[in-house]
Design brief:
disordered N terminus; 191 residues; 2 domains; Immunoglobulin-like; alpha+beta; 4-stranded antiparallel beta sheet; 19% helix
Length: 191
């Protein structure tokens, strides 16, 4: 009787393994990362909750990417600790400040403001933080990007400030940019 039980267990185990393998292959066949034609690369949206992107594009630091009326060229990502201090004022982080520096070119026919809340930094650990408007104004000093706006056809160096609380646990690897007046979000790889 014991042999029959062991044999039955082996048959059950083999049956379960075959079912699992079949289900896995079926799911793999149904879920493809490729969109469009095989020659069309597909972009993956990040998995963070705030990253419901309708469109994703990749860009490395130093490479320009156009979103709406602006072209952004990300230059650096730096942790600056708990205190942000410039001639414009001082601010204390709830956790740790990260400053992202970028060149912004206004491609429109009139002055355009940069809006900090259009930017969300995402870490390798999927910690997502929206840029802080007041802290970004402090970091930019007299730069008109957040106040009067960047003139038509002009460029400005802009600093975005993010307060990672409690602290930054993994490096910032992506920037999510909301296109003003649209539901479109573009993802830029920073690392």
């Amino acid at each position: 009787m014991a042999k029959l039980f062991i044999g039955t267990s082996r048959v059950r185990a083999a049956s379960l393994a075959a079912i699992a393998l079949t289900a896995g292959l079926s799911l793999a066949a149904c879920s493809s990362d490729q969109g469009g034609t095989p020659s069309t690369p597909s972009a993956k949206a990040p998995t963070s909750p705030s990253a419901a992107a309708s469109s994703a594009a990749a860009s490395e630091i130093g490479k320009p990417i156009t979103v709406g009326n602006f072209t952004y060229t990300f230059e650096s990502v730096k942790s600056v600790g708990k205190t942000l201090s410039t001639d414009e004022g001082e601010s204390m982080a709830q956790g740790e400040f990260v400053v992202v520096t970028m060149k912004v070119t206004n491609n429109s026919g009139s002055a355009q403001n940069v809006t900090a809340s259009d930017f969300t930094a995402v870490t390798a650990g999927n910690q997502a933080v929206e840029a802080q408007e007041n802290d970004s104004v402090i970091a930019n000093g007299t730069n008109p990007a957040f106040r009067e706006g960047i003139g038509a056809g002009k460029s400005a160096e802009v600093k975005l400030v993010f307060d990672f609380s409690p602290t930054l646990k993994t490096p910032v690897t992506q920037m999510l940019i909301k296109e003003p007046g649209s539901t479109k979000t573009v993802t830029v790889r920073l690392a």
